[in-house]
């Protein structure tokens, strides 16, 4: 009873803080980019991280097993993973680009998990026999940490594509205007037109930083995903007598692994870095959500215990 009450309190506290942080983010984005408001939102995410940590520990103690047995618990852990990735650059004070992605990701994931939409599966139940294994912590935690890192890295790649597209479009319009002006006026306007202005320079630097951090975060996530798939194969052999069963979840996890393996391969070629590899990572962003969330909507296969309640099917 005490643990249930504590879990209830921590859930409401984290959701309240998340709501406040979302409001602050909207204010800073739409109205005023205040440094004080931004710092308040950053501290709010850190407080949320400790609330989620307390929630996971409380649920672990009360249920007697690591809280990764259903969709609600996995969403809470995914939010915790986003918050963990967010805290690292916050204390380093030099990776603001990464925090711009991880912050909102943690906010919206935690907000969805604690909003009441998944109320029917908030209560922790008895583990199904297949989950009563020490491999639960190893496999599921590695998979969700991998999802979190890959999602963050993919969002950085999406941002890179957006900035690159806008930059190329502006350069295209400028070059056309330059050619037309040169043709009709017959003057050398090259001196009056600066294609490499300070704004373009900083935009190029931003693209390089996005590419740099996208590659490193995705590499980290790919490592977690690989460990998760391998540990899951060993666990599947112990539970079901086969290392691989082509279950929908397994199939989409393999597709996710292939997509990001292609991304890492494109990074080895200098000509394919930047926008080309970012396109692959952007495709991977959609594949991850199909693997993690979309398969749960169907609720079939050996991983159906992680699906939505019957009322949502």
UniProtKB/TrEMBL annotation:
Keywords: Chloroplast, Cytochrome c-type biogenesis, Membrane, Plastid, Thylakoid, Transmembrane, Transmembrane helix. GO terms for biological process: cytochrome complex assembly. Its main location: membrane. InterPro entries: Cyt_c_assembly, Cyt_c_biogenesis_CcsA, Cyt_c_biogenesis_CcsA/CcmC. One of its GO terms (cellular component) is chloroplast thylakoid membrane. It is found in: Membrane; Plastid, Chloroplast thylakoid membrane. The chain crosses the membrane at residues 12-32, 44-62, 74-91, 144-165, 213-236, 251-266, 278-302. HAMAP family: CytC_CcsA (MF_01391). The gene is ccsA. May interact with Ccs1. It is a multi-pass membrane protein. It holds the Pfam family Cytochrom_C_asm. It comes from Lycium ruthenicum (Black goji berry). GO terms for molecular function: heme binding. Required during biogenesis of c-type cytochromes (cytochrome c6 and cytochrome f) at the step of heme attachment. Belongs to the CcmF/CycK/Ccl1/NrfE/CcsA family. This is Cytochrome c biogenesis protein CcsA. Residues 68-303 form the Cytochrome c assembly protein domain.
